[in-house]
Amino acid sequence: DMKVTQMPRYLIKRMGENVLLECGQDMSHETMYWYRQDPGLGLQLIYISYDVDSNSEGDIPKGYRVSRKKREHFSLILDSAKTNQTSVYFCASSLENTLYFGAGTRLSVL
Amino acid sequence: QQKVQQSPESLIVPEGAMTSLNCTFSDSASQYFAWYRQHSGKAPKALMSIFSNGEKEEGRFTIHLNKASLHFSLHIRDSQPSDSALYLCAPRTSGGNYKPTFGKGTSLVVHP
Q: Among A40, A51, B48, B74, which residue's Cβ finds the most Cβ atoms within 10 Å?
């Protein structure tokens, strides 16, 4: 069964703190994604990774960076988090045309 | 950049009704059209997809695609309370380094 795992599931941080969201997949998929989901805005693409060290900005990359040093692992980093980065973050990987999503990380920045 | 619009934004139907959800897209080069379903508090999950013009049926669910009108739709026959969810459409263009774009979704509630 294809599985994408996100850690942590819930996170509360203070404004200005650094945040690390982690994502793993056990399917050896080349392409992985980070999205954020806010009410009324749908899924917005932050970054996409086509393979190890091959990352590309999505539609809303400002304030975020990513790291992919192993094919099965993709991290999202928020340097000095802001309150408007409070959201639900989804990681996904894809096989051909289908995206497989993790369960999400609910991040609150106070 | 692909622009995707979904309608309606929300929908409430009685159990047993036929439900129709719509998606329009802007890129005429789009070649793959998918619907994802997201139950409350859960991850989006692929539901159905279609490549070519026409219709595809899987159980109670049917996709219609009309590339010329830049439109595809999802129809749910005999809607059930378990179908209550956010439905997201995702058209994609061809090419290796595409970036998946989702509509904002239609929130469906099926009441018993």
A: B74
- Residue holding tokens 């990513």? A66
**Cα A37 from Cα B36, distance rounded (Å):** 14
Q: Which residue of A has its CA nearest to B10?
A: A40
Tell me the shortest Cα–Cα distance from A78 to chain B, in angstroms: 21
Are A97 and B42 an interchain contact pair (Cβ–Cβ within 8 Å)?
Answer: no
pLDDT for B1: 78
All residues of chain B having their beta carbon less than 8 Å from the beta carbon of residue A41 are 104
A102 contacts B45? CB cut-off 8 A: no
Verify whether the Cβ–Cβ distance B99 to A56 is below 8 Å. Answer: yes
pLDDT of A83 > 70? The answer is yes
Question: Which phi-psi region, left, alpha or beta, contains residue A103 (left: φ > 0; alpha: ψ -120 to 50)?
Answer: alpha
A106 Cβ contact partners less than 8 Å away, ≥ 6 residues apart: A9, A10, A11, A88
Q: Over the stretch B23-63, which tens digit does the pLDDT of each residue have?
A: 999 999 898 999 999 999 999 999 999 999 999 999 999 99
- Side chain identity at residue B13, one-letter code: V
Closest CA to B41 of A105, A34, A86: A105
Residue B93 predicted with pLDDT over 90: no
Read off the pLDDT band of A54 (50, 70, 90).
very high
